[in-house]
Amino acid sequence: MPVNTTPSPTAELLRVGSRDSKLALIQTELVVAAIRQAHPALRVEIETMKTIGDKIQDVALSKFGDKGLFTKELEVALEAGLIDLVVHSLKDMPTTLPDNMTLAAITEREDPRDALIMAPRHSYKTLEEMPSGSVIGTGSVRRVAQLRRLYPMLTFMDIRGNLNTRLAKLDAEDSPFDALILAVAGMTRLGLESRITQRIDSVLHAVGQGALGIEIRSDDQRTARIAATLNHRATRLACLAERELMRVLEGGCSVPIGAVAQWDDSKRRLEMQAIVVSPDGEHAVEASSDITVDLEEDEDTQARALGNTVAAMMRERGAERILHSIERTPPAAVDSASR
User: Fold this and answer.
1) What sign results for the dihedral spanned by CA atoms 238, 286, 326, 204?
2) pTM (predicted TM-score)
3) Which of 61, 67, 142, 185 fits 110 for a cystine, CB–CB 3.0-4.6 Å?
4) Which of the residues 92, 114, 158, 178 is marked catalytic?
């Protein structure tokens, strides 16, 4: 006789907040499925809302300079007790959260690399094959800065909208774009992996890219216990190091910081490399370091310490000069020739 695993209507309720985009909902459903598997008696409901970043689609992200664009409204609902937990793309989360909020869990990371998506009319397979003057669409200053440094012959144009909207702009007959740069993780979660032309290893990805962050109220012990089952150790350690680097360097979505941290479980080793590139691609500061994690000490603290160390190295090598110049002159992701 089959067992009924549907929670009772009177069962304990967990309200999960999410942006209402297709990708955000897919990501939230992944988290909800994991919660239901670990807590089958729990009743889970999803509440959706639009953020400022969702509502304003005709302005480059670099013009805002605030990573709260995709989180603020959800945090307001969380603080008001309208929801118990928020699922974020970790790369959208500010590195400093409100005092009464905490990052309760970080889920297992999807492939964090950036992807080249070629227009259907082209047969090029890599960035290296693309002819001089090819127009690449991206809304990320980080991607533009690193790609300008590596491929100065290419032209970059800003593009906004959700992932499907961007692909439609690329595929249009009168499209100004020859290719787009998007996150592998988003393409994979939306079932669009077949559109990926190249996974780019030469560009360091955004802090937290590919992972999901679970935000709760700091004093909510019940939800903290539920969220703890979502943590993925290797991803958590890597992302805490990356986030600390960005926090120390005071970076956000309008600052071209790339960071890759990786955990080697067999050696208990956490390795990290990072780069800051001027928006024109002319100047760059790089640093890397690693630690062997002491199991007798707090792992999260050690991961953050690695991020702090790499940030200090980058400061010593001149990263702050690049970052301060960006503060004085906010970057534009669009080349003047393609406005």
Assistant:
1) negative
2) 0.88
3) 185
4) 92
